[in-house]
Amino acid sequence: MTLSELADRLSCRLDGDGSLEITGVAGIQDAGPGELTFVANPKYLSLLAGTRASAVVLREDAPAAPCAMLRTSDPYLAFARAVGVFAPVSRQAPGVHPLACVDAGAVLGPEVSIGPFAVVGAGAVVGARTVVYPHVTIGPDARLGDDCVIHARVSIRERVVVGHRVVLQDGVVLGGDGYGFVRRSDGTHEKIPQVAGVTIEDDVEIGANTTVDRPAVGETRIRAGAKIDNLVQIGHGVSVGRNVLMAAQVGIAGSTRIEDDVIFGGQVGVGGHLVIGRGSVAVGQAGVTNSLEPGQMVAGYPAISSREWRRSSAVFRRLPELKKRIEALEAEIARLTAAAEKRGDPE
């Protein structure tokens, strides 16, 4: 693909030789002739002088590079789209593989692809052009929208609803039983039947081995545009807002409501029955034990204002030194007090 063709595909302004042949994309330190790279963060602009790339994606106001340039207001977004342009296409052909098991009562839309050893239960609906990879299980009366990609070993349990353009990475489980038990008088536990709904709205992506539990009543819902990483646990009855981002190993306890545009770093834990306000941020490994106001940024355990946490962290490193100083001061006070008592000084 020529650079001018790529500029058109990416809606960038071309500055340089548009006839250059571009064969792929790479990071600024690894890119070679024929490749496109990018600089979104100003601190990497100094690396441009030594790049071997044929072209670079830059901000409109960035200094000139020693190669051809594609100018745009958002270089990272343009580069992400360039990766998609050059990504190898690997997709199952439409149709049902002979080794798949599709119930006669299931409904498959046009151009659906069902891989080997996949199972589609009675009354399930799979939307147009959706791709179901091997060993996927789609339970009875589950509904999947159009243009979804369901990777290997995903389990979509009975009656789960999945919207359009949803991507489920390997091993996702939607609609497993929520963790609900009642203690009996003899100390044993009786299971609360987990029979309510799970809904995944449009344009959601869920990472490998993430689980989304169903509740006993109400529903668990992940709203449109949410992007969830690997090994995340979404408890029963949780509501996840639009465009929420969760990094790996986040855990959300039951019945918590997460409003739109929230961001959770890796290994964040969130307690149950909380409200996480719109646009709030919990940095990695934060333990959120109380509801958060909209726009609040927290860190640490229990989570507090990230600014306060940074100040506290600076003190934590000095605790051994401060302990010694306090002990020395206490000893000096004790010595002075004893000396004063010996002299008979008044208090």
Number of strands: 38
The CATH architecture term of the largest domain is: 3 Solenoid
Please indicate the count of domains: 3
The CATH class of the largest domain, by name, is Mainly Beta
Q: What class, by secondary structure content?
A: alpha/beta
Strand content of the residues, in percent?
A: 25-35%
Whole-number average pLDDT? 94
Trace the largest sheet across and list its strands.
6-9-12-15-18-23-26-29-32-35-37-38
The coarse overall form would be flat
The fold-level CATH name of the largest domain is UDP N-Acetylglucosamine Acyltransferase, domain 1
CATH superfamily of the largest domain: Hexapeptide repeat proteins
Q: What is the multimeric organization of the chains shown?
A: single chain
Uncertain segments: none
| Terminal CA distance | 90 Å
Given the structure, what is the number of helices? Answer: 4
Task: Provide the helix percentage.
Answer: 10-25%
Q: What's the main sheet like?
A: 12 strands, mixed
How many whole angstroms does the radius of gyration measure? Answer: 28 Å
Task: Summarize, please.
Helix content is 16%, strand content 28%. By secondary structure, it is α/β, with parallel strands linked by helices.
SSE layout and pairing:
Elements: H1 3-10, E1 13-15, E2 24-25, E3 35-38, E4 55-59, E5 68-72, H2 75-86, E6 95-96, E7 101-102, E8 107-108, E9 113-114, E10 119-120, E11 125-126, E12 131-132, E13 137-138, E14 143-144, E15 149-150, E16 155-156, E17 161-162, E18 167-168, E19 173-177, E20 181-183, E21 189-191, E22 197-200, E23 205-206, E24 211-214, E25 219-222, E26 227-228, E27 233-234, E28 239-240, E29 245-246, E30 251-252, E31 257-258, E32 263-264, E33 269-270, E34 275-276, E35 281-282, E36 287-288, E37 297-299, E38 304-305, H3 306-316, H4 319-343
Parallel strand pairs: 2-3, 3-4, 4-5, 6-9, 7-10, 8-11, 9-12, 10-13, 11-14, 12-15, 13-16, 14-17, 15-18, 16-19, 17-22, 18-23, 19-24, 22-25, 23-26, 24-27, 25-28, 26-29, 27-30, 28-31, 29-32, 30-33, 31-34, 32-35, 33-36, 35-37
Antiparallel strand pairs: 1-5, 20-21, 37-38
